[in-house]
Amino acid sequence: MLDADIKQQLNQYLQLMEGDVLIKISVESDSVSADMLAFVEELASMSSRITVEKTQLPRTPSFSINRAGGDTGVTFAGIPLGHEFTSLVLALLQVSGRAPKVEQEVIDQIKSIRGNYEFETYVSLTCHNCPDVVQALNLMSVLNPSVTHTMIDGAAFKAEVESKDIMAVPSVYLNGEFFGSGRMTLEEIVAKLVEAPDASIFNDKEPFDVLVVGGGPSGASAAIYTARKGIRTGIIAERFGGQVMDTVGIENFISVKYTEGPKLAASLEEHVKEYNVDVMKLQRATRLEKKELIEVELENGAILRSKTVILSTGARWRNIGVPGEEEFKNKGVAYCPHCDGPLFAGKDVAVIGGGNSGVEAAIDLAGIVRHVTVIERNPELKADAVLQKRLYSLPNVTVLKNAVTKEITGTDKVNGISYIERGSEEVQHIELQGVFVQIGLVPNTEWLQGTEVERTGSGEIIVDNRGATSLPGVFAAGDCTNSPFKQIIISMGSGATAALGAFDYLIRN
After folding, report:
1. Mean pLDDT, to the nearest integer, of 5-15?
2. Region for 306 from its dihedrals, namely left if φ exceeds 0, alpha if ψ lies in -120 to 50, beta otherwise
């Protein structure tokens, strides 16, 4: 089951195990069971600390990873390869007794949870968002006997996925009821289960020299640069990594041939924590006002004060804003072809958008689904010529140009899409089961409405060559600004520029 490269990686990881692990496996005579048994036995053959025992679990095929002295509640219903390979490795290490790299405050919160919490997460092995959720819930199961978690591969349990109308991954259920969908960090999950900290813990903080709003590449870069100057630095982040967390392969980050978004985001956070930076996660800024100091109000009502502020709030997927889009999100309307594409195997889908993102999505989906229709509102596609050539070579792709999306239709889930032919103004309808929206990004700057921070008509913050905005003491960097190019490496550079600009402002004022 395992190729030489994976075996080599596993050998290195398994040497880090600190105690014995018992894998309980539930299999029958089907082909998936046979593959799973071979996989688990091969795994056990690589370490004397792993033993295997056949049993009967709620789902077959599946296996659980346990301490020699008792069950932990960590179960894999499916073979955790692909993006879930890391989830398997971490489960083995943590169940064996190796301490997780998690802040003690979060560990204490997890251990304080009382009651019965049976989590189930439906994933696809090509989903790069799923491992964060799987690993978080596995860790909670290891730390707290009140929590159990089962990862369920949608491809191995198709009937179960279809019976629940699951059309987006990861989809998490708690005690049989829907809990949430999409990427969730450990802190976000814990925050849903325990009482949020009182806003007073933020109000009591001393003023910062620099307060960074946003934890993506630009925000992390800015925080590192200011902290290295020895000045008091804080960073507010809803989630570390920002839009990078939703990026699969990164091949243009200079000096790194290839990496993946979540891996880069973890490295960013680890680097920031090497310095004396006050990191405040799961926090959203809602108001900015300049008084004697600059005040930033958080969603929970707390107010933070700083001499300077660097805005690095990034951007998000742009919505098309037509009837049916909001109603059918996660019910046929999707934004990540890598994550949700496998759920539409053998079905008909549309991709809205003819830029690089849209065409790349269509090419990826064409290898999975029955048919892809690309809908582009302009006379020509905007994607690179090499991508267009590949797209037009595919037999199961139709490209509609001069077509304006009018409505996404459905009842309890998507059943079609209507569009207007520009020129004739005729309305056409296509029957399909999925719509992937790929029309670019919109800056996360709505909360600055009414402030003195000048923005473009599309909401981008206008900055000068030092990263300064129109409001003295306020700087900005990354995809939320009017930078013409939205790239990770450019965001990092602009974060450094804004940090140096803020430092220079502090010296002069």
Report:
1. 90
2. beta
Using the structure block, give the residue that is written with the tokens 């909401």. Answer: 459
Each residue's pLDDT tens digit, 123-165: 999 898 899 999 999 999 999 999 999 999 999 999 999 999 9
Question: How far, rounded to the nearest angstrom, does the alpha carbon of residue 489 sit from its chain's CA centroid?
Answer: 19
- The closest of 311, 237, 245 to 279, measured between CA atoms, is 237
Query: Using CA atoms, how far apart are residues 331 and 334, in angstroms rounded to an integer?
Result: 8
**SS3 label, residue 258:** coil
Residue 333: closest CA among 203, 182, 436 = 436
What is the biggest distance separating any 2 CA atoms in the chain, rounded to whole angstroms?
A: 75
How many angstroms from the chain centroid is the CA of residue 137? Answer: 15
- Please report the pLDDT score of residue 260 as a whole number: 87
Write down the pLDDT at residue 246.
77
Structural tokens at position 11: 């050998």
| CA 182 to centroid of chain Cα atoms | 7
Q: Are 340 and 124 in contact (CB under 8 A)?
A: yes
Whole-structure pTM over 0.90, yes or no?
no
Distance CA 227, CA 209 (A): 10
Rg (CA), the chain: 24
Domains of the chain: 4-193 (3.40.30.80), 200-316+441-508 (3.50.50.60), 333-437 (3.50.50.60)
